[in-house]
Amino acid sequence: xxxxxxxxxxLARRRLVGAAASSVILAAAPxxxxxxxxxxxxxxxxxxxxxxxxxxxVVDPSQSLEAVRDVAIREGKIxxxxxxxxxxxxxxxxxADAKIVTPGLIDxxxxxxxxxxxxxxxxxxxxxxxxxxTVVDAGTSGAFTFSAFRRFIIERASTRIRALLHVVSIGxxxxxxxxxxxxxxxxxxxxxxxxxxxxENRDLIVGFKIRFSQQYTGPNDxxxxxxxxxxADEAGLPLMIHIGGSFTPLPELLGLMKRGDVVTHSFNxxxxxxxxDSGALLPEVRAARERGVxxxxxxxxxxxxxxxxxxxxxxxxSPDTISTDLYSANLHGPVYDLPTTLSKFLLLGMDLSDVVRxxxxxxxxxxxxxxxxxxxxxxxxADVSVLExxxxxxxxxxxxxxxxxGRQKVFPVVTVRGGKLFYPST
Length: 426
Ligand SMILES: [Zn+2]
Prior knowledge:
The protein is α/β, with parallel strands linked by helices. It has 13 helices and 16 strands. The protein has helices at residues 11-18, 42-45, 123-126, 146-154, 191-200, 214-217, 221-235, 250-254, 283-290, 306-314, 338-347, 352-357, 361-366, and strands at residues 25-28, 49-60, 65-74, 77-82, 90-95, 100-103, 105-110, 132-142, 160-166, 205-211, 239-242, 262-264, 294-295, 384-397, 403-417, 420-422.
């Protein structure tokens, strides 16, 4: 049991490791202390657990659990979730007294394909170090760039990364004005190519993504939607659509969405959103939810409005999942990270368990991750977030620059992924 050993891949990752010498670790027996002992005796010397997270308040909506428990981990899986597991049974112990312990957080809308285009950021410092064990990259790569994303980022990261392939084959290599938006020329929107690349990478590609804002599409969004539908149907995978300022009114786009598809940037303040001019939720939005379409936050630099969110909550329409849309332009505000984004929902009146549910249990159900996530049940992946809920006066800003003051904020303390520990670098 050791903290992450990193190959030298930049300062940010090295800082991550440097911080791992934290006082949170109480005890660590050397790995392989039974070396040299006869095979038959080896089990006697070995402690049954690699890691014990002791004394935290476990908030696990998958089990309707909100109580103090110890979490024992062995060989990358949750081994036991109980009260009073002896410290002596684990090689390494994390003291989580007065902390919150949740299943590893899942962020369904991120951009973690850096160095190609303006959006991507390094996954480990901004996600794994801040409580997020699994991210879904929302369309940064397309059919032409996915192999680079796979080889140079996904396979090297410690954060678990799954991808939504952009239906436009160039992905998000450019922003927009004064440059060309990716759907302004439909020749790049090739559903057969997208479906083929998704089929060749079924271990990592869990769906498709397409962006519908006028600056990225011109008048082509409805045709883009038809092609995205075709790609998703051919591959048998769900589709995530980005909304906010689309050329075509939202009900027409929603009309092409099926059970399991996802709307992201749901609570933005741009034209053609979820609300009509009087602030009432569109009936087509409720109908889409009723037939199984998910509504995700996708905060971003321009896509989350406290006012719109408040109006939706008053009409009993809360997000299914809470995600950041974290990328280069919102990393230093207003988004910062997933714990900050989750905190905004505490100030909007959701309780902690309902907030955690939207970044664990619910998020785990949206895509096929191929492993058991979003729960601390024994047998699940050993992905655990240790968080601190601090009381105080905290100012939060939405994408429109509007602020709200909350009395609680979630901070990452330590994250466990595959049995290894990761700490925030700041
Ligand atoms: Zn995005």
